[in-house]
Fold each of these.
Amino acid sequence: MSTAAAAEITPDLVSEHGLSAEEYERICAILEREPNLTELGVFSVMWSEHCSYKSSRVWLKDFPTEGPHVICGPGENAGVVDIGDGQAVIFKMESHNHPSFIEPYQGAATGVGGIMRDVFTMGARPVALMNALRFGRPEHEKTRHLVSGVVSGIGGYGNCVGVPTVGGEVNFDASYDGNILVNAMCVGLADTDKIFYAVAGGPGKPVIYVGSKTGRDGIHGATMASAEFDDSSDEKRPTVQVGDPFTEKLLIEACLELMAEDAIIGIQDMGAAGLTSSSVEMAGKSGVGIDLDLDHVPCREENMTAYEMLLSESQERMLMVLRPGREDVARKIFEKWDLDFAVIGETTDTGRLVVRHQGRIEADMPVQAVSNEAPQYRRPWNEPARPEPLGPDEVPAPASASAALKSLIGSAHLCSRRWVWEQYDHMVMADTVVRPGGDAGVVRVHGTRKALAITTDVTPRYVGADPFEGGKQAVAEAWRNLTASGARPLAITDCLNFGNPERPEIMGQFVGAVKGMSEACETLKFPVVSGNVSFYNETNGQGILPTPAVGGVGLIDDVATRATAGFKPEDETLLLVGAEHGHLGQSLYARALCDITHGAPPPVDLATERGNGDFVRQLITDGTVNTVHDCSDGGLYVAVAEMALASGRGADIQPGESGLVDHAVLFGEDQARYVIACPADKADEILSNAGESGVTVRIVGSVGGARLTVDGQDPISLEELRTAHEEWLPRYMSGG
Amino acid sequence: MKATVIVFPGSNCDRDVAVSLEQATGRPPEMLWHGSSEVPSTDLIVLPGGFSYGDYLRCGAMAAHSPVMRDVVDKAKSGTRVLGICNGFQILTESGLLPGVLMQNMSLKYVCRDVHVRVERTDTDFTRQYGNGGVLRIPVAHHEGNYNADEETLDRLEDEGRVAFRYCTPDGELDRDANPNGSARNIAGIYNEDGTVLGLMPHPERLADPQLGGTDGKALFSSLAEALQ
């Protein structure tokens, strides 16, 4: 065949494309000849770890993905869950780790842009953004620069598009020194009868390109995200894409306007691997072929080759298959929004992807093989060793519990993230009822009484110590945070960030975490509806802490009946829901203050988790309580302190009669626990109902004053706590 | 009152302000695409917040040259009330309907949070329902809200009573810490000479509903509804 890409395919070239010798042989067998350079490029991205999930797929199929409300689980651009009244919530989380380390502003910004496209591609208007960020230790020379760039990149994109960023997580740990994690989540709303999928229908349909023009940016982004970093990684900066949130905003409005017409058969955003993956995936799902004529692709650079056009990851582009004859309706809408619109091909009955450029055939390959026959690896893995539990007595008591509290709450781990979220527009769309900083962000379903609660969670130090328990805990904590807001947890999306899967110990972490997550999803009826895997978060052989981030979404039926963490009236009684075991292994207290890094993380008893959570949610929905906070990092003492700081009211804590040492009661990180505040005259009734339901609840203190007091410990003023809590991050970021 | 919200490419608070207007007046405002050459007869024109044209040249600069703006300027000059919020305020200064400029925040960072502002006058169509004035809690969300003008202009604005709102402490004190962006003389919003055009950086439409945590923004819309009924 005649081709411009006549370069000789050498073993080096194959390896530069991230393909193994065996994979190359398989490609030759599929094509029944050697590929040309363009075809090699297409295989390299489609079979990259990032696009093909070749190391993870065999394990991911164990995730529970179904439930009575699930309309669409994993495999589409995003998960879809029914929320009643003909409406659906559509959401997904995705990583943009590698580009964000290399170019933090654009890397993070395009992460936000990409995840929004995954959601509006399905017909949803994006209504909320979240993110989960992990940075290296604060003392590391790059950390400040990365925090600053990532935060302004996320804000720069989301703020301009006009979708509120309602919360997230920020952690610091030395394991992320060379590989930060930027996981962005988007939640959107659609009508259940107007959901769009990445399909091509049958043959003979026009294939349309809309959005921005194609440039040379991001070529091989997906391949980069499928390899480790080394000391020369900064040289990969040209593979990072550049975002244009203004065009994204126009694209959202134009797509939603067109979706209201009866014109679209299928639609897919051009994300990783751009034009290649969007066209191959749509054709692959519908069992058709696709002919593309690259002469019609709008380009912003001159003399782009077919290879470059197919692999470009230029942002803010979508591919659609339209009903024949509806092109003019669509064109008019995109022209109104000043966006490019081009018919670049059509679907065929050949089952092949045929790409033409300047009169030559540049690629001719079977769609099914490219999209569905990527190699699947059951990579070797080692069962992680399960550490022994750490007894409360093995962890020393603090000289002063309140001083320990102050140093935890004023540390990088637990300080206020206000410096971060004040740079995000978290109120645009005027439906944000719970702003960042609480257990979950809450946005109203516009024009209804309903609201969505959204959270992102994982505790990497737990997963590092015991991937299985840590995986369970990540799901349980998300479920708990939604419950604490008064929401019925619906489903999760995930972003599984790990090191190099070719190392058996890393694969062992992955397998353990996925098994733990699956068990928790099953018991909590909290299915996985979308997600993404990011491997190779490693530099020079040093992997990150395993970080399976969970994005949970819950539904509040009546926005007036919900709970927040801040105390409300004085003199309410504080109750602790959940049993106290004083578990200090992998607690922040043991690790950050006592430098004890061994020991098992807190075990998660899923049946108890569910029973306690259902009990708390019932108290919220029947109007008995509206002050609830989950008890997690830092334990009971930190939970109460956060409730106090959120309200400006103090509290008194009674350590109780558990027989545990005080610091285990105060700082232990036992799971399945909540702190709630109720009117004093309702406490007895709650205790007796709890007894009947088999839920452990005890009175743990009372609300009031301007200090935190604990029987037998020094009191501490809220003022002093607040200063410590608020000052760490701004001081750090200003170089102090 | 009949209100018209101009929608520019990149506007993103158009729906939010439409909700507040409908709550105040009982009827939805007209949403008018920026490409129109004329604003149909209306009592109030609203330039909403957002990032018109991506704020790529200078905030509001390109929107000020949108086709519809010629008629907006003409109508403003003949007395139609005009309200510009955030990006809308920037468009008003760029189109010459209000003096001064909105520069980058002193912090060089985007800022989104509740601030307090003092209502400087309660005898205008925009503020008549704010009783004796007092202090409002209302959100800001911007990267370029640092109002400035030459000293002579600032003096004139003050002498003519054209400062609409000033950033202040919850007790109404004007101090530097209460100023989220470094604006000259803590100015958060100003009027034109006739008091018929108002530009302000804070977003009254974001706190006009108790579920959102406050209602201090609501009276601005009900003032207009009452004045222009």
Amino acid sequence: MSKRNNGITRRSFVATTAAGATALALPGNVLAQAKDSLVMAWPIDPPTFDPIIRTNPGIQSIYKMIFDQPVTQQPDLKVIPAVVKAWKVSEDGKTIDLEFRDDVLWHDGKKLTTADFRYTYVERKEKGHKSDLASVFRNLTDVKVESPTKCQMILSQPMPTVIQWMTFLANYIVPKHYVEEVGPEKFAEKPIGSGPYKLVSYERNSRIVLEAFDKYWGPKPTIKKITILIMKDPSARVAAIQSGQADWVPEVPIREVERLGKVAGLTAEILPITRVIMLQIRSDRAFADQNVRLAAHHAIDKAALSRALYGGKAVPLSVVATPGTPGFVEGFNFPYDPKKAQELLAKAGFSPSKPLQIGMASFNGVFPGDYDIARAIAQMWKRIGIEAKIDVIEQPKYFELNRGNQLPEATLYSWDNATGDPEMFAGYLLHPKLPFSAWKDEKIGGEIMKLFAVVNYDERIKGYKEVNVKAASEGAVMPLLQSVMTFVYKKGLKTVNYANGWNLPQYWSWS
Amino acid sequence: MSGGVLGVALRRIGVSLPLVFLVSVLVFVVLRLIPADPVAMSVPPNATRAEIEALRAEMGLTLPIHEQFWIWFAKAAGADFGKSIAFAQPVSRLIGQALPATIELVVVAAVFATIIGLAGGLLMYRVAGGRGEAASDLASTLIMSIPEFLWAIFFILLFGVALNILPFTGRLDAGITVGRITGFLLVDTLIQGRFGAFLNALSHLLLPSMSLALGTAPLLMRVLRSSLMEVGNEDYMMMARLRGFSERRVLVHHAFKNAFLPTLNLMGVQFSFLFGGTLLVEVIYSYPGLGSLMVQAVANTDLPVIQGVALVYAVAVLLINLGVDLAALMLNPKLRIAK
């Protein structure tokens, strides 16, 4: 095999590695990718291929390659038909009529019917199969099957976001005949779905190989073979795209995106998605005083954070919703105003010479720039008279602290919401009885709880917009930035960008 | 195996069993004391607090620690490590899938470490007192001072990106699939007569195993050199030289044989460390072994998996040490008499 890179002499090569000689004789490599195949690097390995088990946002795109959701979303997040081609929610929000396509096949050639839907949403729970889907649809009492293409969901209580949930986490239809035949554990290892790709092989923590399903009911993928390399280390992903061992890599550090964007043959992108970086706030302790909370919020220069850490691509936010989603409030701005911050803090009796001591929790390495954001905010607060002691925590500790109501005054957090619906933003983050809420005050929390029962869409969205403004204005939450996703890929690959960060190669092609 | 060696082996196993028990107690207790909530990690965003508490109770996490431990230990004794919280699969199955990959990696790394360590030790001895001594000292110190994960990143950048001659992800190239028989790819490819796939698997092992080996080899070099220097002044060495044997023959046939035993003992300790080194190296190389599984389990606070993998690590370390002790006994008759 000939030398591939200029500037490396035979002598230097021999001097640096004897092992290379073995490799030079090796057959087959990943560099030569045909135009109908794609090698993707992925930072997370699916814990299971049973798609209803876990609500893990990072693996939804992989599930969407293999399985179908009842309904799906366009790149701009509008809900559109999929396996379910029409739906009707009753006025009381307790029954949902669904009409299925009649041309959907499982990867083994059998037809997908409403019986599979009932099995997924009702029967598996009855059989004791533990799943997050069962927990999400805890109020679903039955699915009445009328025909192979028609059924009705019966809920014990209204679930205003039932349709949005059917595009969201863990909502995938699984094949009744196959799961019953092989059992749930075997299914989780070697599944069949009805999606655009079939799972050919899987090696945990290493790679997933998919092949296009030629009888897929939707648009046939032009890329016929997908190899997903599980690469958790960001530097390994950078090396993979640079060496040509991968065609597409996500979640590349911002500085690397800027550098790789200048490399010939590569395209680099930074895209804002429906993920919010924010400070979760306690309603008591040092933050019991609204003046203090608002002072802390006014002291944060979000634009500067975006410029310093995200190349200016992360949009500063004033509400817990991203631009373009229903709960976003156009025209509302919570300004960076350090003077006002000092005035508000003075009202509470604190100043730079008499600082307020608070606690702040932050992850380090869970999402891009997390700990840097926390440190920068601590510096901004220090200028007005708030001294924050940063405690770096891991996700499990976050849940433990939150469960015991032991989080400090402020916690830096990142929240994903592929649906864009405000219930999955402000709803889950400010509902005092749900596990992800740090805010326990029932004034704003009470308004949120009421909205969980509002079935009328327009009324619900209006309510959330009002609560969003109120929550920011009263310092119940401090939205910071709309988070970004970064990608680097080979030139010639045409991708489709979804506002929620889905990466679906079934819609991609090589030019 | 002679009766003496067998007796020593049985005694060592007898001592090892309580050690495994102690390790399992330690791991179990420490994991229960850390402030982390494994249940809340794996619930949907609209889960209620009551549901989380119910799940915790169902998983036995509300029982006293000693009760939890005995339930777990009784099952673990039968190789049932429970069900993973994150993967929703039996832990023993997850370990069974990942263990062969790690053993393969550690064995290849041990081979590299032995070759580099012994060859380097002999070389260092040969150049001792000469102009090359300072250079060989510097080289071994430099290699020793760089941790495995830095070697891993350096090798990726050098051989994967700059030279672009070696793969650095997974166990096989994207286009190659090999049916699983034993889980040991090098073995499975040969059983199936796929020599090309065998070479491909070997090429994927080179960089991670070298990264691991370089953490171990310098110590072997130095110990071997010191041992050689010790035996270098023995009477039998002088006699060999007086008999007119070449320096190479004296070194290999007389000095090395006697100097090897201390190195062998060190190899036992160092090869145990290779298992620990796999944690980061496997993640960096996307290598699907126990290290990757452990890191993923820690990230999810997947207690059953962490406990299971930790126990496997402990048993592996004890087995390696046992193997090395037995090898030393077989190679050195004096030890058998002493025992």
